[in-house]
Specification:
By secondary structure, the protein is of the alpha/beta class. The chain has helices at about 10-25, 80-90, 100-115, 140-150, 175, 190-195, 195-200, 205-215, 245-250, 255, 265-275, 280-290, 300-315, 325-330, 340-350, and strands spanning about 5, 30-35, 55, 60, 65, 75, 90-95, 120-125, 160-165, 185, 220-225, 230-235, 240-245, 320, 355, 355-360. The chain is about 40% helix and about 15% strand. Strand 1 (about 5), helix 1 (about 10-25) and strand 2 (about 30-35) form a beta-alpha-beta unit. It is globular.
Length: about 375
Amino acid sequence: MKRLIVAAGGGGDAVAAAMLHAALYGDEDQAVILTYAWDRLLVDPVPGPRGPDNFTGLEQLTPAVWTVPANARPIAPAGSTLPRLAAELPHTFALIDPHHGVEGVTRQLEELIDHLSPESINLLDVGGDILARGDEPTLKSPLADALTLAACCQVNAPVRLLVAGPGLDGELPVDDLRALLGARIHTFSAADVESVSSVLEWHPSEATGMLAATARGVRGTCEVRDAGLPIALTDEGPTVHEVDLDEAVARNQLARAIMATETLDEVEAHSREICGYSEIDYERNKAAWLKDQPSADLVPQTVLAQLDEFEDEARRRRVTHTTFRHLTEVLNLNGSQREDLRQLLIDSRPEQYSAPLWHILVGAPGL
């Protein structure tokens, strides 16, 4: 009897789903994790989510659901973290296809439920932006969460909505989220992180990286994203809360508006109307901008000097940690250089590696 976990926003939510399964269910039957193939431009330079047609080597589980095995590959120029996740984790990763709107994702869920008869169905969101109304000024990526929320509320089966790491995605302030959260069902520990520790060495998710870091006891302020958003790492970071699914739908204007959509274009149109933008438009604009930006060469001496400058400025902002994704952008490197940068920094200054984050020491390097 498998358990079904829907990774609400894709990306790092799928890694958090694996961590959740280990924490709540241990070594029993592994989960089917239903997730988007939607990575940041650092990994996938093509804007928006990928569908089954963007991969080779997928395996059909039901008429509408395809799984991503370790030997699957995204068709260039697209990229995806899912095949590597499948290679390193014991779970089955099934692909959310949002191109047929909420009706299509609902059909996928219904087929999976009929096929698996799962013992439990959890909808997991890291950060809590799934609880957004849609008009919050800090909201950046409402579309994916609203789509999965709308689909989950329409299936004829009990779905439990869980929010892990309130506020860690930087979309809704944690002070605004507290009143919306239900019972705390778990607090991740360092032992829970071990199940995904190898993945955290390479996966670029910032929110799930901070979730794991707080579970390991890291506290402070972490700077993330291209804009350098500061995120507080507190005792609330590693917590997991249950939230009433119907209340979340009643609050989420975009989820309610897209219930009957049959295409991703329709979902985007509603997002532009309700939220004022589509996050895929943001990716389109950024991808076009990145094409014209020359990336820097990764010269160790130059990179370490630039890192010192960044850390001096970060200390003045009272920042204690950052992510390798943020450092890659700060240092004007491209996504293909991220792993080389990470290895250079860890090899050069191992005392600053606070896995999976980078620790900005109070004093200068070596002091």
